[in-house]
Specification:
By secondary structure, the protein is of the alpha/beta class. The chain folds into two domains: 56 residues, no CATH class; 167 residues, Rossmann fold (3-Layer(aba) Sandwich). The chain contains ten helices and 13 strands.
Length: 288
C-alpha cells in the first residue's frame, strides 16, 4: 500500500499554529519586532485576530486586500498611523457623533466605537467589496447599534458618479484616471454631500475624519452648513502633490486653524502645506 508523505509546510503550519495569538500580541506590544513576519507564516495576518490597546481590545476580520489589517497584525498601532491614530482616538473619546469619511475596512470606526461606547458613528465607504469588509468588522464586534455604515462616496454634489476602484484598496478615488494614475477600474457609486447626509439623519457631528485621496477639498465644499453651524473638529489627509489651495481657502473662510500631526504631536500652522513625512492634519474651529 502506497503511503502519502505529509506536506512539510503543512506540518510547520500545524506546529506553529498555537503561537499565532501570542505572536501578534507580542508584536503589537513591541516585545517582538514586526520583521518577524519574514520568518513566521505571513498568512497568519489574513485570519481574524485581536487588536490590543491601553485597557481595551477588539477583533479584526481581515481580507486579502486589507493592507492596514496586515500591518496592524504584525506591529499593532505602534507603526501604522503612529502620529495620527492617538490624535484621532483622543478626539473620538471626546465626541458624541463621529463621521468616518473614507472608512476603508473600518479601522477607525471599530477602534472609535470601542474606546467610546457612547459615541454615535456614521461610517462612509463607496467601494462595495471594501464596504462589505467594513460591515463585517462592525458586525464581528457587535457594533451595529452604535455604527451606521453607508455605501456612498462623499463630495460636493449628490448623484451617481464614476469612482476609481484601485487595485490598492487604500487608494480608491473620485479621480476617474486613478489617484496618481494607479491601476484599477471604474465603477458607478452614489455620491452625497456631507450637508445632505447630516440633514437626512439629523446628525450633529463634532468630529470628522476625511481620507479620500486628493478630494478632501470636495468633501469640505459640500459641507458648508456643517462647517458654519456645527463646526466639528476635523482630521484630514493632505498628500504632497495634491491640490491643497481649495482646502486652505475653505478652512480660512470658516475660521479653522490647522495643525500638522507629527511624532512630537500636533504643531499649529497658518495654512496646510503638504509634508513628505507627515500626511495628516488636525483642523480646529477658532472661537467666533
Amino acid at each position: 500500500m502506497e503511503t502519502t508523505m505529509p506536506d512539510p509546510k503543512s506540518i510547520v503550519r500545524f506546529v506553529l499554529s498555537p503561537l499565532r495569538g501570542p505572536a501578534t500580541w507580542a508584536c503589537q506590544r513591541g516585545l517582538l519586532p514586526s520583521q518577524i513576519n519574514r520568518i513566521l507564516p505571513w498568512r497568519w495576518a489574513l485570519k481574524p485576530f485581536s487588536i490590543y490597546g491601553k485597557g481595551w481590545k477588539c477583533r479584526w476580520f481581515p481580507t486579502d486586500f486589507d493592507a492596514i489589517g496586515q500591518r496592524v497584525f504584525w506591529s499593532g498601532l505602534r507603526d501604522w498611523g503612529k502620529e495620527t491614530t492617538p490624535v484621532i482616538l483622543d478626539q473620538i473619546r471626546k465626541a458624541r457623533c463621529f463621521l468616518d469619511i473614507g472608512a476603508n475596512c473600518g479601522i477607525y470606526t471599530v477602534l472609535g466605537a470601542i474606546v467610546n461606547p457612547n459615541v454615535r458613528i456614521f461610517s462612509l465607504e463607496p467601494v462595495p467589496r471594501i464596504f462589505a469588509a467594513l460591515k463585517n468588522n462592525v458586525t464581528g464586534n457587535n457594533l451595529n447599534e452604535q455604527v451606521t455604515a453607508l455605501n456612498v462616496a462623499v463630495g460636493e454634489s449628490n448623484g451617481t458618479v464614476p469612482f476609481h476602484q484601485a487595485e490598492d484598496a487604500t487608494q480608491g478615488s473620485l479621480a476617474v484616471g486613478g489617484y496618481r494614475g494607479l491601476p484599477g477600474s471604474l465603477i458607478q457609486v452614489e455620491c452625497r454631500t456631507l450637508d445632505s447626509i447630516v440633514e437626512e439623519f439629523n446628525l450633529k457631528p463634532d468630529f470628522i475624519k476625511i481620507d479620500v485621496e486628493g478630494f478632501e477639498g470636495a468633501v469640505l465644499a459640500g459641507a458648508t452648513r456643517v462647517l458654519s453651524t456645527l463646526r466639528p473638529r476635523i482630521v484630514l489627509e493632505a498628500n504632497p502633490g495634491d491640490s491643497f489651495e481649495r482646502i486652505n481657502e475653505i478652512l480660512k473662510r470658516y475660521a479653522y486653524i490647522p495643525s500638522i500631526l507629527t511624532d512630537r504631536g500636533p504643531e499649529p500652522r497658518t495654512q496646510i502645506i503638504p509634508d513628505e513625512a507627515y500626511r495628516n492634519w488636525l483642523c480646529l474651529p477658532a472661537p467666533l
